[in-house]
Amino acid sequence: MKTISCLSPEKLLAAGAAVVALVVSGGKILAAEDLKLRPGISFTQDIDSGFPIVATDIDNASIDPTMPTIIFFGAACDLNTNRQAKRLVDIYHKIPKGQVKFIVIDVDHPANDDARKLIKTYYNPPGKTGYIPFEVILDKSGKAVWSQIGEVEISVIKGQLDKVI
After folding, report:
1. What's the domain count of the chain?
2. pTM for this entry
3. What is the pLDDT of residue 31?
4. What's the rounded Cα separation, in Å, for the pair 118 and 122?
5. Which structural domain range is residue 121 located in?
6. By the 8 A CB rule, do 106 and 34 touch?
7. Which pLDDT belongs to residue 104?
8. Is 6 part of any domain?
9. From residue 19, how far is each of 43, 56, 125 by CA, in Å?
10. Handedness of CA 124, 127, 132, 136 (dihedral sign)
């Protein structure tokens, strides 16, 4: 019997890889993974080198109500966002993988409806104006337990994350 597939070998391989990733992760695909700073960003000038963080699955902005989450709101061409992005990437590498979900949102160019919903809910709720950088920590039930506008030291954020892990 001959099997006919409508998918190209590349698409079949990608689908297989997605299934393996889902199985290996125990059914949870985390948001931004492998966070890194974009090459060429400046920590001394407001120059546009693009959004300061690059990652795999950076567009995944869905909340996992069973996992503590940190949401980072920022924008390209912003010195403060760049410096805070460096801190977030440093924190990402200090926390054991799978303990905290990292969501990274460019407020000027939200990736999808989930990102727009998070902007409306946390960053720019009715009656308030959003400032960047801005970070929110959600506990395991999805409740916002800490937020801060501006640059925040690594020790402060790590301390807040430790409370919800």
Report:
1. 1
2. 0.78
3. 61
4. 6
5. 29-164
6. no
7. 96
8. no
9. 39, 16, 37
10. negative
- What CATH number does the domain containing 48 carry? 3.40.30.10
The H-or-E segment that residue 91 falls in is helix 79-94
14 located within any domain: no
Mean pLDDT by 10 residues, the chain (165 residues): 39 35 37 84 82 89 92 93 96 94 95 94 80 95 94 96 95
Which residues have C-beta within 8 Å of that of residue 101, sequence separation ≥ 6? 30, 31, 63, 64, 67, 68, 69, 70
DSSP class of residue 99? S
Long-range contacts of 152-160 (CB under 8 A, 24+ apart): 152/84, 152/87, 153/87, 154/87, 154/90, 154/91, 157/70, 157/87, 157/88, 157/91, 158/91, 158/94, 158/95
| Contact by Cβ (8 Å): 89, 37 | yes
